[in-house]
Design brief:
Length: 251
């Protein structure tokens, strides 16, 4: 079971034509990124992602920026799924380390290499099963979202300080959050604040409030910085935006 029959490495590559294998293929992206294209779906990946492809499944691997990877073919794998799957490595890069070691021993001539390679086959398959069956990724994203929503109006809220309390690297959290939400945690925080500011500026109950007060309500202690962020998102200053909306509504 879980027998490694091949371990290879691609230096910077842009395309792999459509093909399939008789064994499971596991492709760990070590750099760059791209997309695996299957008959009915596409899996986008980047560095730190592992794509698992079942036997006899046609696929192509294409990239605009180029990719590097380590790929392993395993026969008699004890996976409990039948569709292509993408998982992300953890902050300690356990999967990457296992792939690097498997590549080294597979291409070495040391004694007992077959026993070592067999051990890595079991280890890598168990990593995939464990990472797939646990759901830390979505749970962590939900936790970050919840914390931001609870605190985004607080001028003293420091998102970076909060993120450091989570046992993952900052870069990993940023990538994880963006993969789920389409934006980074800081962009999510900014969007919440600016959306609230827009509503306040459009409200007849708050048009008399000055910009500093609205900035403070939305979590900005510096009204000048708030104005710059608002203008970047709406193309004009908060004051001009409010004036335009008032004019449009006949106020």
């Amino acid at each position: 079971m879980n027998i490694i029959v091949y371990v290879g490495r691609n230096m910077k590559t842009f395309t792999c034509k459509q093909h399939s294998h008789d064994e499971w293929e596991l492709v760990y992206c070590t750099g760059g990124g791209g997309r695996f294209e299957f008959r009915d779906r596409t899996l986008k990946y980047s560095a730190g992602d592992l794509v698992i492809i079942p036997p006899h499944v046609l696929h192509a691997n294409n990239s605009d920026e180029g990719f590097t990877n380590i790929h392993i073919n395993i026969t008699d794998a004890t996976f409990n799924f039948k569709e292509p799957l993408l998982i992300s490595d953890d902050s300690e890069e356990h999967i990457r380390n296992a792939f690097n070691d498997a590549f080294y021993f597979f291409n070495s001539e040391i004694n007992s290499r077959q026993l070592i390679i067999a051990a890595f086959g079991n280890l890598i398959v168990n990593y995939v099963i464990a990472f797939r069956n646990t759901k830390p990724l979505r749970d962590v994203v939900d936790e970050i979202k919840s914390n931001i929503m609870q605190n985004f109006t607080d001028c003293d809220y420091e998102l970076d300080t909060y993120l450091k309390t989570i046992p993952f690297s900052y870069d990993y959290l940023r990538k994880l959050f963006k993969s789920e939400m389409g934006m980074t945690p800081h962009s999510y925080l900014t969007n919440l604040r600016i959306q609230m500011a827009e509503k306040l500026l459009c409200s007849s109950e708050t048009v008399e409030q000055n910009i500093s007060e609205i900035a403070y309500i939305c979590g900005y202690s510096d009204s000048l910085y708030f104005s710059r962020v608002f203008k970047k998102n709406f193309g004009c200053s908060p004051k001009n935006y409010a004036a335009k909306r008032m004019k449009a509504s006949g106020m």
